[in-house]
Design brief:
This protein has 285 residues and is an alpha/beta fold. The strands form three sheets. A seven-stranded parallel beta sheet has the order 3-2-1-4-5-6-9, sandwiched between helices. It is built from 13 helices and eleven strands. It is 40% helix and 16% strand. The chain has helices spanning 16-27, 58-62, 79-92, 112-123, 144-149, 166-178, 197-208, 219-228, 233-241, 244-247, 257-262, 269-275, 277-280; strands at 7-11, 32-36, 46-49, 65-70, 96-100, 127-132, 151-154, 160-161, 186-189, 195-196, 213-216. Helix 3 (79-92) runs parallel beside helix 4.
Length: 285
Amino acid sequence: MSDSRKKILVLGANGNVGRALVEQLVAQGESVRAASRNGQAPAGAEGVVFDHTDPSTHAAALDGVDRAFLMLPTGHVNVAEVLLPLVRALADRRIKVVFQSVLGVDADDQIPYRQVELALIASGTPHVILRPNWFADNFHTFWLSGVQQGVIAVPAGEGRSSFIDTRDIAASAAAALTNPAFEGQAFNLTGPQALGYADAAALISEALGRPVRYAAVSDDDFVQGLVGAGVPAVYAGFLASIFYPVREGWTAGVSDAVQTLTGRAPRSLAQYVADHVADLGQAAA
């Protein structure tokens, strides 16, 4: 049983993982502080305004917290610059950290996400590292315009990924935050099966009852498409760069980490699609 006088801080509480995590923790009876730029929180949680890049918002968020979920918000590419000060602040207060990293970063200590992991490990504060694979939810967020137009155009080649549902990432994070048995460990979070983007498009097409296909494009064409849709060029370039591991086959592995952490198997991509038909079928604006 957790100390009722302490709170769990969830950064990025309005994001796909953060929102689900807050809801799960509240349902488990935990006291949750939901941190976001607007300070709004799901029912049952305490909201607090928090900006990763504004230190003046940090102290109030950390006060009275004994555990925290740390992640980098979408749109940032300066991983170490944003996250390392937070690692230090959390460690100074001896706050347990569950860090959402990225699958595969342990292959090279020069990767910024790996540098954050190493700083967290060296800090001595209790921690758990979660390394999720590509989010299934990208299909109704980042790739939604392609789904709407009937063509998912990404530079994945013939590579496959064991897509993971963000609800399973949230469940894994909830387990890591509330169970001390997982401290000091790192977990590669994957779905139950590796599929290519053509497979994903076929699942979506069948669910929506209209054609959706996959088109393998070059990095340059991919970046130009994102920039044309309003994505900053720097972030578009970053998104293109992380498809290289997909093409190389490095994202095709399947782990039992979700089962280990949560006690149940992760959702399949087919289940994700079935649960998000309404999101995937949104009409183009």
